[in-house]
Amino acid sequence: MSPILDIAAFNSVREAGLAKLVPTAPRVAIGMGTCGRGNGADGVFNAFASGIERSGMDVRLVGVGCLGACYQEPLINVRLPGGPLLVLNQVKINDVPRILHDLHRGTISPESIYCKVEAWDHITGHISYGRGYPDVPNWDEVAFFKGQKKIVLRNCGFINPEDIEEYIGVGGYQALYKVLIEGRPDMVIEQIKAAKLRGRGGAGFLTGNKWDFLAKAKSEQKYIICNADEGDPGAYMNRNEIEGDPHALLEGMIIGGYVMGATEGIIYVRAEYPLAVHHIQRAIDQASEYGLLGDNILGRGFKFNIRVVEGAGAFVCGEETALIASLENRAGRPRPRPPYPAQKGLWGQPTSINNVETWYNIVPIVTKGATWFSDTGSAKSSGTKVFSLVGKVHSTGLVEMPLGTPLKTFIYDIGEGGSTPGRAIKAVQTGGPSGGCIPQEMFDTPVDYESLQQIGSIMGSGGMVVMDDDNCMVDVARFFIEFTHSESCGKCVPCRVGLNKLLRILNGITRGTVGMRDRLEAMEELGRMIRDCSLCGLGQSAPNPVLTAMRHFRDEFEEHLRAHRCRAGVCQDLALSPCENSCPLRMNIPRFLQLYKERRHDDAFLSVIFDNPLPASTGRVCQHPCENRCRRTSIDAPVNMREVHRRIADEILFTDRFDDLAARVAARKLDASGRKVAIAGAGPTGLTAAFYLALLGHDVTVFDEKSEAGGMLRFAIPEYRLPRAVVRREVELIERLGVKFVFDTRIGFDIPLNDLADRFDSVFISIGTWKESWLYLPGTELKGVYPALPFLESSAKKEAVRLGRRVAIIGGGNAAIDAARTAMRAGAEAIVVYRRDRKDMPAIEEETVAAEEEGVRFMFWSAPHRIIGDAEGGVKALEMVKTRPGEYDKSGRRRPIMTDEIQRIECDTVVLGVGETFDTDFCRASGLALQEGGTIVVDRFSLETSRASFYAGGDVITGASNVSNAMDFGKRAAKNIDERLMGESRWEAIFPTFVYAHKVPDEPNHAARHVSPALAPKTRAKTQDEVVVGMEPEAAWEEAGRCMRCDIKVPAGVS
Amino acid sequence: MPQKKISIRIDGELVTALEGQTILQAAQEAGKAIPTLCYLEGLSPAGACRICMVEVAGTERLLPACTTPVQEGLAVTTVSARLTQYRRMTVELLLIERNHVCSVCVSNGHCELQAMATSLGITNTRYWYDFPTLPVDMTHERFVLDHNRCILCTRCVRACAELEGANVWDVGGRGIHTRVTSDLAQPWGESPTCTSCGKCVQACPTGALAEKGAAVEEMTKRTDRLTRLAGSKRAQP
Amino acid sequence: MKKVKVATVWLDGCSGCHMSLLDIDAAVIALAGKIDIVYGPLVDAQEFPEGVDVTLVEGAVSSLEDAHRIDLIRQRTNILIALGDCAVTGNVPAMRNKVPVAKLLQRVYVEGADTGKVIPTDGVPALNRHARPLQEFVKVDIHVPGCPPPAKAILGLLGDLLEGRKPAANPKVKFG
Questions:
Q1: By the CB < 8 Å criterion, does B127 face chain C?
Q2: What single-letter DSSP state applies at residue A891?
Q3: A607-610 long-range contacts, Cβ below 8 Å, gap at least 24?
Q4: In chain B, what residues touch C142 (CB-CB under 8 Å)?
Q5: Which of C85, C133, C136 sits opposite B103 (nearest CB)?
Q6: pLDDT per position as a tens digit, B108-118
Q7: Which of A23, A926, B135, B159 is deepest in the core (most CB within 10 A)?
Q8: Residue A111 CB neighbours (<10 A)
Q9: Domain of residue C57, residue span
């Protein structure tokens, strides 16, 4: 090819390029970026190549760049003459013969198509591919692409990056031609200024001003540099841009070279991007060949050359002075500015350095004008930005959005929400190691330079890493500091030593070896100092991940430090195993499973009861968070830990082994301490505290307003789920430890708190949420409207409740399901009305399934509107408003939005299962500080209230929760009360130790998950008999053997 | 051509400076002391230690006095609670980074780091010591390099390059693993480029570079001679 | 007037700081009227008493026993002073930190010994991996660096404390 010297030659190349893009034969374009190749695009390409050769069909096969939807790779697009471009996703080698067959018969089967492109705006040109396939969504109708605006990525995924003619075919190099013909460099710079384009490398300096500096600098030699040293973890937009569309970069740089009067252009690209290096080098060769680089560009007498320099991989070389040092063959260390590179840059000559993406925006601005460009984006940040959306979102990839788009659009609309069901998204990290963690509450923040900076993060190069409950924010902060620490050049003290110190503190926190609280303050102080005093951008921004994580997730830091707990289960040194870590009581689950497997039933029971004093009750009604974390899930299904645990408890509690084992528990009691502790409330929290305090040798008295112990276990959970006998037996064991119970006595009413203070050394308040919370709904005054708890309580006491024939239950929690099943057992029909989706219900899944089996009906996305009464003041019907899913809330569920549609169900009874509350007014009078909502103020870790020697825990400080969470408070309260009373920790002394096998199974056993047998729905729905009968011993034994023993930690490399 | 005179304010006081001067030079001429560690008059400034950070009106960012040029109307604050806190933290970080055991050091009593700690009123560090294991290079016949005492100010590097022209010293490694190295990281005694002039030893602010045979407290440095030498070199045509 | 209860403690150090304390010479007479030395190498008491007003600690924490002692001392002391570089920075005792304990003992007691090449075990506390400054174990109220701190500095400090003043920063105090 001879150099293009006139417009005729240019146009003929353009024609040739267009003919390649819209050929008269079928064209197959394979996404061959690094992301596509990583997912097998190479194999797909080869399969097409050999298939085409074998069949002798006339099919044009090319490799193209990436379309951005990385989670759908390998992506290919196919086009039959006259038809639209059809994008096929996740194409496997096996699919190739079918696709070729489709091409042969002239139509592509619609079910295999991801989306279609009928026409495409390349900005520099427009291509109409053709119409057709009405049932296939257009590309901008697919959630991932909706709202995206492709200016930078205008050609990626469409043209063959290794063919200059295709680039010219879509209007490439026209802008350059125009600039050279017009010959007004100053006008171009004015245009870039007017477009308000800001540097895309992170700092956001106005590009026009930067160019102006270099244009005005007087020197024989001037350099322009493209900074392609992309190094942020999780960011790869520059790589894909260069891989998919290298000529657009060259064109932007040649224009830049011309208007700034530069003599040479350099692309500094990291060596870890071999494909990008290959494509850009090839593009330079082709451009030179076509006369677009060299001594006489496009025959207009302009001389300019571009060369590629590969960086050796130091992150700090992304900093401009370090990059220049690297280009000068010196070690990549930054130097103080001023002088700025525009004054004294490469080899001491004026130099302008711009990020890859900045260069990609030049051609569109020159082509379409400044106003067109600044129409997109926000007032101060115009244009678009490419973000790499990765992490815990469903749809990942490169997303080009107008600046100013709120974060939530990225995460919930384009990313389509979380990647793991049941895990709420809690934060997004923007800007890589220089950026910060933004919590879910702040997802309304628009993504532009100023807004992100205001909340402590930065936009940076555009990395966007989404995190959910499985991510530990302390560990995330630690990760980024480890990264910047190892990439620090070591020149200035704050960055070199400060980051090392910060890392050591963070390592200590994640390993549980740092216990001092003042370390958080030390970290904040150090972070600020590193930020304010470091020499270059690396150090100045390095503390951002820590500072923002500490600002927005301080709870997690404190929990690591003070409770040695990592809820996400990431910091392995703080956990025994994922199940233990997720258990509110932190039961040593692998231990009791192993003991049971060794058929040591007594030991298994002791292991269980010392971790959990109500093992038979929790074995029936616990929410079992352990199963959500069980690693066996990755093979088949989680270990049924709760049912084995129940089996272990039942085998002792309800057999003649009881007396013996109860005596063995009591034998571990420490000597009498002479201290007296009062506990208000005999629910799970109070009983748990009583158990441990008695073991610790204290004289414990439990007060309760009811006539029997057990709280919610006894009076709220129906008999068919948790028989009374079970709770009674557990309470009996606690009584045998010497705990005294005083019933029918309400603390704060029958006995003032001040009296307790006189008579006892310590008081623990663990009253439950017994006060019904009423829904403010027209018609709740009608006869036949009951709150769920009193309804269940009456039923538990076998009191008569006047129940109608059709009962409507409002709510989605356990109380609602319990009420529905109780109503069924009373002979009524039950229908549960819930304002969100089924999967959003807080009730235990198994219970919902059981209710469905028993014939309870459900209505989802339906919110109560009013209760309609009849002439006698009774209930006639319930009217609801249909809801629809709205935005995601903090819990990771979609908020219900009211619609105009009214629904109605005829019913004669309405049960309100919408939550419970408590009555704590009596506390105020006795000097206990309360929160606004009425919960008692306590120290989150020590559970101390505002009054000395008074503690509180359970629902009364958190609001209604569940059994195991409530018991956790009792356990922690006992430990803290004892420590405070005795002046030392004696906690460990009460626990027995066990010797058992520590061997990881060579192979996981093949047993499938065992489920406890249940009574048949038809028969059980009419009785109070316990529905789930519990596992057979052999089934439980086999189930215990399914455990993979995550508690055994073997150093890497040791088998 | 005579340099243009400009006016700046240092801690509120109006001071005349010459265009092209740094804030540090202007302050020193006006008799205002800004603490420094990696700076040595006569050598090019490195801006590495960050002790001389000052506040400049109109910008949130702190700037190093040793490399920031003066501009007409500049208003500089050299002493503030924040600056003092940061200077102390910087010195504390240097004290914990390596093994500075003043009581057995040849430079005890004549050490710029020790003096800086004293003048900032540092009686302890708020961070924990690392106690790294670091080598001592005893291979040179006249001098010793003890990495335990090095603060990476690079004054030796610059003195060797700019005053002696031998370019023996450089900095190797990165981050916390950064070390001063001679030639291609070979033992100092095997350096083919070292002229044994001892300028690096005189430039070193601590006991990291010292003469062999010096006992505790015996090593005094004559940095003034280097400054004078640099001045006379500059005066040569 | 009630006398101020002062204790002195000698952990891993050379006793130089105690020597420096004794170097206050004649001032000791004036001081003696105001303070009671209730514990330390200079007096007979066997157990660290409760309710000490001021404790001067010389030396680094080098063994588990040192760590236990400093815990108890902290509990029973109002104002805890780290006296001298060993207590403040680790100083000379910490110079062994880069050598593993077993290797260190081998070098000193076996390779370096002329006779009785045995590593002592009876009646000597086992060494910790590192000798470390006091503040890494307990909260220290005042640090007085120096090897040793000059007598005048100690005297000035005690004077300030006896007068109920916040101790003035002493320009004479330096590391080393």
A1: no
A2: T
A3: A607/A994, A608/A645, A608/A648, A608/A649, A609/A649, A609/A661, A609/A665, A609/A733, A610/A665, A610/A668, A610/A990, A610/A991, A610/A992
A4: 123
A5: C85
A6: 999 999 999 99
A7: B159
A8: 7
A9: 4-93+130-162
> CATH no. for residue C70?
3.40.50.700
Find chain A residues with C-beta within 8 A of B97's C-beta: 496-497, 500
What's the pLDDT tens digit per position in B113-137? 999 999 999 999 988 898 999 999 9
ipTM comes to: 0.97
**Residue C117 maps to a domain:** no
Q: Does B90 touch chain A (CB under 8 A)?
A: yes
Q: What residues of chain C lie within 8 A of the CB of B117, using their CB?
A: 174-175
B8 CB within 8 Å of a chain C CB: no
Residue of chain C nearest B105, judged by CA positions: C176
C56 domain-assigned:
yes
| Interval C91-109 mean pLDDT | 94
Query: Mutation test of the interface with chain B: which of A493, A495, A528, choosing the one with the most B Cβ atoms within 10 A?
Result: A493
Query: Chain B: nearest CA to C150, how far in angstroms?
Result: 13
Walk me through the domains of chain B, giving residue ranges and CATH numbers. 5-79 (3.10.20.740), 85-223 (3.30.70.20)
| Residues of chain C contacting residue B103, judged by C-beta atoms under 8 Å apart | 85, 91-92, 147, 175-176
In this predicted model, what pLDDT tens digit does every residue of A348-378 receive, in sequence order? 999 999 999 999 999 999 999 999 999 999 9
The total number of structural domains in chain C stands at 1
Instruction: Show the domains of chain A with their CATH numbers.
Output: 7-146 (3.40.30.10), 173-374 (3.40.50.11540), 378-471 (3.10.20.600), 472-575 (1.20.1440.230), 583-664+995-1040 (no CATH), 670-751+933-990 (3.50.50.60), 771-917 (3.50.50.60)
Look over chain A and give the mean of its residue pLDDT values, rounded to a whole number: 93
Closest residue of B to A534, CA-based? B50
Point out the residue among B95, B121, B133 whose CB comes nearest to the CB of C169: B121
| Token output for A28 | 């197959």
What per-residue string of b and e applies to C41-75 under the rule 16 or more CB within 10 Å gives b? eeeeeeebeeebbbbbbbbbbbbeebbebbeebbe
Beta carbons of B176 and A491 less than 8 Å apart? no
Prediction pTM value:
0.89
Does B121 contact chain C (CB < 8 Å)?
A: yes
Closest residue in B to C147 (Cα–Cα):
B103
On whether residue C120 sits in a domain, the answer given is no
> At residue A530, what is the residue type?
I
The helix (H) or strand (E) run that includes residue C37 is strand C35-39
Report the interhelical angle of A724-735 vs A658-666 (nearest 10°).
Answer: 40
From the CA of C145, how many Å to the nearest CA of chain B?
6
Q: Which residues of B touch A314 (CB under 8 A)?
A: 174
d(CA A873, CA A162) in angstroms, rounded, equals 81
Residues of C in contact with B133 (CB under 8 A): 98
Spatial strand order of the sheet with C77-83 comes to C35-39, C4-10, C52-58, C77-83, C142-144
Closest chain A CA to residue B82: A529
- Name the residue type at position A624: H
pLDDT in tens, A724-759: 999 999 999 999 999 999 999 998 889 988 899 899
DSSP notation for A401-447: EETT-BHHIIIIIIS-SBSSTT--EEEEEESGGGSEEEEGGGTT-B-
CA pair distance C102, C115, nearest whole angstrom: 19
Residue indicated by tokens 């403040």: C88
Taking CA–CA distances from B60, the nearest residue in chain A reads: A532
Residues of C with CB under 8 A from a CB of B: 82, 85, 88-92, 94-95, 97-98, 130, 132-133, 135-136, 140, 142-145, 147, 169, 171, 173-176
**Identity of the highest mean pLDDT range in A419-433, A620-634, A666-680:** A666-680
